[in-house]
Amino acid sequence: xxxxxxxxxxxxxxxxxxxxxxxxxxxxxxxxxxxxxxxxxxxxxxxxxxxxxxxxxxxxxxxxxxxxxxxxxxxxxxxxxxxxxxxxxxxxxxxxxxxxxxxxxxxxxxxxxxxxxxxxxxxxxxxxxxxxxxxxxxxxxxxxxxxxxxxxxxxxxxxxxxxxxxxxxxxxxxxxxxxxxxxxxxxxxxxxxxxxxxxxxxxxxxxxxxxxxxxxxxxxxxxxxxxxxxxxxxxxxxxxxxxxxxxxxxxxxxxxxxxxxxxxxxxxxxxxxxxxxxxxxxxxxxxxxxxxxx
Length: 294
Known about the structure:
Blueprint: H1 19-26, E1 55-58, H2 65-69, H3 73-76, E2 80-83, H4 91-98, E3 103-106, H5 115-118, E4 126-129, H6 139-144, E5 148-151, H7 161-174, H8 177-185, E6 203-207, H9 211-222, E7 226-230, H10 236-241, E8 245-246, H11 249-255, E9 258-261, H12 275-279, E10 286-289
Parallel strand pairs: 1-2, 1-3, 3-4, 4-5, 6-7, 6-9, 7-8, 9-10
Helix pairs in contact: 7-9
């Protein structure tokens, strides 16, 4: 089976991902002396042949990130743009709302596009996805429908943004920052706010010691935390290189004062931390999940 057609990989998730829709609509040719180095891996009609009725949907722009991260004016002059700021409640709702669109620009893994939905969108020709992959998009069904699929790499200025978020959540939970903030805004001061947990000397268990998990281990070391780690294929050498100590899953669950999950979602990792595991955690332990596993 042939692989789905893809455009050349972009670099900035929002700003450059949405340029690909312009590529399909405007039909920029490959030119060796193009100062922007624009090269596309598909054949498209020339600009004058593109119908003005091309419709493009920008989905799940909950935080107005897509609208504010790109200049849409040139694309808007050649196509009808519609921004969707709210999620679809059901597949039926999505099928009705998107039935007339030719191109969908999607935020990574917010709206699911299974085969059943893709075959209810007869005009769809292209889906552009922020991020390197999308577990909620049936790429095989896109191939059968001859739908062009393209994606972006991570933002070059924030390659470890998810690990930074995990660290922020850990500190916020340990020091009860959200509770203290709400109390202060309500006119209170300290009353009802937990003292908080100092992280130095505490044990951080990392589930999944890949690129982001290893970065989280470095952050924890800067806080003088003791780092242990586990994943199905983790070796002692790799754990040691990341500044962590390899332990069993049961040991990690029972020993950690905080656990941070950094696993890619797959059939093997779905439910990797279950109710029984949570029940075996220390009283008052913190569980941080910034991955798509669980």
